[in-house]
Amino acid sequence: xxxxxxxxxxxxxxxxxxxxxxxxxxxxxxxxxxxxxxxxxxxxxxxxxxxxxxxxxxxxxxxxxxxxxxxxxxxxxxxxxxxxxxxxxxxxxxxxxxxxxxxxxxxxxxxxxxxxxxxxxxxxxxxxxxxxxxxxxxxxxxxxxxxxxxxxxxxxxxxxxxxxxxxxxxxxxxxxxxxxxxxxxxxxxxxxxxxxxxxxxxxxxxxxxxxxxxxxxxxxxxxxxxxxxxxxxxxxxxxxxxxxxxxxxxxxxxxxxxxxxxxxxxxxxxxxxxxxxxxxxxxxxxxxxxxxxxxxxxxxxxxxxxxxxxxxxxxxxxxxxxxxxxxxxxxxxxxxxxxxxxxxxxxxxxxxxxxxxxxxxxxxxxxxxxxxxxxxxxxxxxxxxxxxxxxxxxxxxxxxxxxxxxxxxxxxxxxxxxxxxxxxxxxxxxxxxxxxxxxx
Length: 440
Prior knowledge:
Radius of gyration: 36 Å
Structural class: mainly beta
Number of strands: 36
Largest sheet: 10 strands, mixed
Shape: elongated
Mean pLDDT: 79
Strand content: over 45%
Low-confidence stretches: 41-80, 149-159
Distance between the termini: 171 Å
């Protein structure tokens, strides 16, 4: 009887212990599920290659259950996408497939299957794929390099790029004479880009819009779009397709015409002395456009952007471009569509604080009263002033008549270039009455 009473507290302690262990185990399981969901949301993974097919979140429900491909039709079993980062501007991050950590991207870094690249505000990344094709990732964009089964409309399997937000443009190239296609999964649809001509590239611009619709602008090649509910559409060169946020409606429209850039002229130079001058960019009006998009960059690849803005009207002024070379173009915009690029122009900005040359000939010690010619040399484009009176010169050669008065004549010459740099020089000329010789 005593032993039974002594065993009851012991059994009670064991029950409490197992209860606590079970409670801790349940808490750990709940935390693990929550952590997995959270990581899946912030670090989405592309679908794995065949043999390990995994759905990735949170966009799995929003994507069509079809595959896409990249490569040449005569290659059946192609190596998965491998590329590299050609250029970055400001903040660009790269996450490798098996990593949960985002790291700052670097030029030359390789990107492979299931890798992800993201840009932030005023940042861009230039990527190379297939050694010849290039993709430009606009600001506030996120893409994942994924792989799917073959597109039902195409006969091969290969790679696909998963675009989550932002803007993506590029020129896709494959070996000449072979058909080429490239698949992109969008938040509400999927698009396969195809070369119409085996010897031409595919040029495009795709954007995830503010209302969560997506727009595919096609400048060369063709595309097939499949919405979330299976709705399909074909897009041809100089057409655009806008897919609504639900992926159930696709609207096809013609692209607006590009504007003609008018100023500054191509390879024009802008020179300033101390403070950079405002530079005014201008272009022609396009009837169907409701606004325009101007891009100014320090490089020809348009990755080091200075300006990347929508503009109402046909002019844009930048107040302070530092010295250097710049490249710029404009697109017309109508709703979400964007025209092809205008002509790309180059602008050169120089700082010049060197005064113009000014070299005056030394006068004789004594000169006769009356007209005397001031001679010298200056820069061909300089403005000249003699005692504050503007004078002309012959491509820099100075030959100007000066009326001398008896005694010392101080002649001050000023040369000024087009940005206001000044150079001064002066000569002192002694003038006397000419002596008349007496005849014997």
